Amino acid sequence: xxxxxxxxxxxxxxxxxxxxxxxxxxxxxxxxxxxxxxxxxxxxxxxxxxxxxxxxxxxxxxxxxxxxxxxxxxxxxxxxxxxxxxxxxxxxxxxxxxxxxxxxxxxxxxxxxxxxxxxxxxxxxxxxxxxxxxxxxxxxxxxxxxxxxxxxxx
Length: 154
Prior knowledge:
The protein is of the alpha+beta class. It is 38% helix and 27% strand. It has five helices and eight strands; from the N terminus they run ααββββββαββαα. The chain has helices at residues 3-14, 23-29, 88-93, 114-121, 126-151; strands at 34-38, 43-45, 54-60, 63-68, 74-80, 85-86, 100-103, 107-113. A hairpin with a 5-residue loop joins strand 4 (63-68) and strand 5 (74-80).
């Protein structure tokens, strides 16, 4: 196993989404990841129907998650960095992405296509489904907390 393979496995094992997955599933996911690079200030993705849905794990760098209104207003939802994941909602429900993702710094990230996710998901056991459910609950709580903070601002 090369250094890049070990690096990918460590990234998966430590990411909030894949934490709790069995070593066998991590070993199956790792070689399916594709390394991509984006320069600072480049748009990585936006809400759009008809995409080949991809889950993305940030290897190095920082991205900004935002949504925009039809009249051009932009609301920043948050910032993600090393080990964080985006694109997981579209991957899981096969719908369009929910937000814009823009590189705040130069970014390297790993992508997992929906076709590869479907292949790997056939290996999922109880641990993986519990980890996914836990991650979805984490996302829901984070959105709820952010909404509460926004609503109760002066």
